[in-house]
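Progress report, Aim 2. The chain analyzed during this reporting quarter is listed below.
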Amino acid sequence: MAERFTDCVVIKVIDCGEADKLVTLYCPKAGKLNVIAKGAKRSKKRFVNKLEPFSHLSILYNDKYKLPLITEAALIASFLPLRRQFLLYAAATLICEHLYYWTAASDGDPVLFDWLLWSLNELSKSGAPQNTLVLFLTKLYGILGYQPDFSGCTTCGSLDPSNAPYGFQTGRGTVICRKCSREDKPAIPLAIPTIKLLDMSFKLPMAKLSRLKLNRNSNREALRMFQYYGRYLLDRDFQTWRYIL
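Predicted structure tokens for the chain:
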């Protein structure tokens, strides 16, 4: 019997049969981990109020079987506000969907795990779902190796207001100005203040990132850009976007 401890965040839960649950976790070292919680739907002690979406847990699981069994779970943080307000729930769900489709088993990343916890904590205490989403996605794509280049127009290098409007090219992960763009290659509109704020967000450390506040228009532009960029890279769209934008 191979038993292991790990910290984790619940990113997906599916009912399995009459009594069990199939739980997908993201762990700092194990990456995405699917486990079975036997009797979780009937449990009055071991799993009650623990195997909920977004919960931060410390678990003991047995990986002797093809699908590991979770035997114990200790709740570290429930992030309860995320399950009480719809927009916060939608934002947290979208974050977890990105983790679900962008990560793999046995491919953990402690830095990404820390950013996941940071985003859930920020959502819980700030109640600013769009701003937190933008900041988390900038860090996610940077960690994944798909960080867009917001330093200037991909062709002329400019961020000159006289060359506005600017747009984001999903195929290149770069911005382009009006003078250098081609009509047959439409780009996603981004205002210069949005471009500068996104560039700054990639560079700021965790201790300072929460101070960065995007206005409503910048949040909307940035999230639309990330929606199309993610769709291009994953060849998949998330239905949860409809509740955010």
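The CA atoms of residues 26 and 99 lie 8 Å apart. The mean pLDDT is 93. These observations will guide the mutagenesis work planned for the next reporting period.
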